[in-house]
Amino acid sequence: MLRDLRRGYEIEFNYKEETYSFSCKKYGWYLTRYRDGEDQSFLDVESLIENGKIEEKNISEFWMEVKNAGTA
Questions:
Q1: Number of domains the chain contains
Q2: Could you give the CA distance from residue 59 to residue 27 in angstroms, rounded to a whole number?
Q3: Which of 1, 9, 27, 66 could form a disulfide with 71 if both were Cys (CB 3.0 to 4.6 A apart)?
Q4: What is the pLDDT of residue 41?
Q5: How far apart, in whole angstroms, are the C-alpha atoms of residue 48 and residue 10?
Q6: What's the rounded Cα separation, in Å, for the pair 52 and 13?
């Protein structure tokens, strides 16, 4: 997953029955929850990896629980 993000791939995934995505847009990278559009924005992919959180867990803490991840 980290390798894919660093290569510029966007990733959609399910975590605790919610759908999220890591996406790259004009002004940086985003971690978005689909249900309500809540997002976190980051200047670059490394900031996303280091600082993106769901339920106060960073990516490395919650990724093992992710289901149905796919790249775009």
A1: 1
A2: 21
A3: 9
A4: 97
A5: 12
A6: 14
